[in-house]
Amino acid sequence: ITSEGQVTLVSTQGDAGFFKGLEVSAGDICVQAHGTAKIGEQNVVDADVVELISTGDLSSSHAQIRQGSNVTAGRLHLEASREASIGQQVTVDAGQVTVSSTGNGTLSVAIIEQAANVTADSLSLVSTNKATVGVDTVVTVEGNFEMEAEQESKCLVRDSATISSGGTSGNCSVFLPEPVGGWPENSFPGEHERALEEVLAPPGFVASPFADAFVTTGSESGDENYVPSNGDGTFAAMTSIPGLGTVDGTDVADMDGDEDN
Q1: Is residue 118 packed enough to be buried (19+ CB in 10 Å), middle (13-18) or exposed (0-12)?
Q2: For 237, phi and psi rounded to 5 degrees?
Q3: Element (H or E) spanning 54, and its range?
Q4: Which of 78, 125, 164, 213 could covalently link to 229 via disulfide, CB atoms 3.0 to 4.6 Å apart?
């Protein structure tokens, strides 16, 4: 199937998609279905935009790229209330990739399945229930990898997954590897990020990544100063250096002994 324009498949009651073993090249490809919107097994798809959107309820709503397919696109968007999935052994090479599960049922999931290989400029794997990166997957994102689930307990990143990204976001980011080049300054994922939200630094102080109670002065030396945490958003008192400042009402002690900063 070859088209310079748009290829659109729509089903208002059932499933829609491409069957097994097809080659499809088009400007835009849009598959919309009440049930399953799919690219079938072992398809080769090349388009500027590929959209797979299921509008159905939780029991029948799937947006899927099925096993062994190869998809090249400027933008790839999968959306369903139950399962939005890049399937097993699927290869994706795209600019912007979004895999979104919008339902809150127990089987609602946004997933990159086993042995899939995804290369993207940016990737959003988001779900109002579960988000999963499967076994033996390879995910390479030049820019930001957003991974979000209803809560952290519903994030799953398999140990055998190989993930590289320029940055991470979302509540599942605590389970993702450190971005290439390290964490951006003053931007830390997971536990660090949540802990740092408890630190209310006064003017001239900037939160540091090493613990919830580390701060740095605004001086050029950037010396680090430490206040031990009580573990409940408050901080233990320490001997203060006059004029150094406070964090959340607690005097900050200068651990390196430089009383001038």
Answers
A1: buried
A2: -75, 145
A3: strand 44-54
A4: 213
Distances (CA, A) of 226 to 11, 71, 230, 240: 61, 50, 13, 11
Give the 3-state secondary structure of residue 22: coil
Q: Show the DSSP H helices in 53-132 as ranges.
A: none
Q: How far apart are CA 21 and CA 68, in angstroms?
A: 10
pLDDT number for residue 54: 96
Per residue in 143-182, pLDDT (tens digit) is 999 999 999 999 999 999 999 999 999 999 999 998 887 7
CA distance from start to end of the chain: 69
d(CA 206, CA 219): 10
Angle at 94 between CA 78 and CA 7, to 5 degrees: 60
Q: Are residues 58 and 111 in the same domain?
A: yes
* Per-residue confidence (pLDDT) for residue 210, from 0 to 100: 36
The structure's pTM equals 0.71
Q: Give the confidence band of 4 by pLDDT, cuts at 50, 70, 90.
A: confident
Please give the Cα distance from 163 to 165 (Å, whole number): 7
Q: How many domains does the chain have?
A: 2
Same-domain pairing of 13 and 72: yes
Helix/strand/coil percent split, the chain, to 5: 5, 50, 50
**What CA–CA distance (Å, rounded) separates 74 from 77?**
10
pLDDT at 21 over 80: yes
Query: Does 93 reside within a domain?
Result: yes
Length of the chain equals: 261
Q: Which domain holds residue 253?
A: 186-261
pLDDT in tens, 218-232: 333 333 444 444 444
Q: Cα Rg for the chain, rounded, in angstroms? A: 23
